[in-house]
Amino acid sequence: GDAEAGRAGTEYTFVTSPDGLLVDLHGQCAAALLPKATSVVALLHDADVSWHRITLPKAPAARLRDALGGVLEDALLEDLDSVHLAVAPMAAPGQLTWVAAVNRRWLTAELAALEKAEVFVDRVVPASWPDDPPMGHFAETGDTNSSQGVALTWAHPNGVAHIRLQGGLARSMVPTPAPVDTRWSATPGAAAAAEQWLGSAVAVMPASERALQSARSLWNLRQFELARRNRGARAVSDSMRQFFSPNWRPVRFGLGALIAAQLIGLNLWAWHQRSAVDTRRAAIQNLVKATFPQVSPLDVQRDALAVMQRESQSLRAVAGQPGDADFEPLLQAAAAAWPPERPPVDNLRFEPGQLSL
Questions:
Q1: CA 307, 309, 314 angle in degrees (round to 5)?
Q2: What is the pTM of this model?
């Protein structure tokens, strides 16, 4: 209860972006007030992650976590059960790779607190990672009037170090001279102290821009026991969020264009069919008008087929020829179908169009 009450007052720094490249909003608020987003990436501070380089064990996916613990047992400062491990992206068994280690209890509690506030984290990424070419980033930790309030994150091919500029440790960690392709950056508040310490200019990079840069990496620390498990309504909700995310914009445009093309095609086909029906109806009406000029044009327009049948029957009656519904044709049809072994019919009854034997 006390832990939850204390966590209720926790505020999170957030950055929103429409495309992962440009900053839209940034600020700090409680978890329940965080802006809604189609995709959520949690960023860990440089000091929250330790790095270990090992040869990735050749083990099944279900047993890889235990195999990693066996390899790193002597290198970790904490008990294996209290450490969460994550393997570098595209790591291959039997090859050297980097493994990130984070306090499991703390990370699990943070993710649970966010999920309780309806903030579902898709990925967890480190702010920096072992990289080549090296990267040095300066950020303020307090008073920025001197180097005492500035810390340096030094990410290089052999690891990541997060150290204060005060003292000589930072000088010993960074080679002199530093590699020429080193990427130097600093937050606006630490830029002056960083340039004074470094003796050269650095690129100014606000914390919000660095957060987006880290989020674009391939890293995802949600592995093993912390991997996302989507079920039921959560799976549907996550699928919808993914579908409406910026990465799926081309798919949405293509699907919309396909639906529009189908609708246009159906309308064109229906218009063509209506045009064909109207053409045939007009041809029938013209034929009836030419054949029976005495008939009212309104009657022809209303039902040309009925007019043709009526006038044909009248002409047949005037000519003395029986029609299909008269007595003679019906009697001839009955005589042709009457079985030879049957006796003659006893009686018959005739109605227009119907002969009963």
A1: 95
A2: 0.61
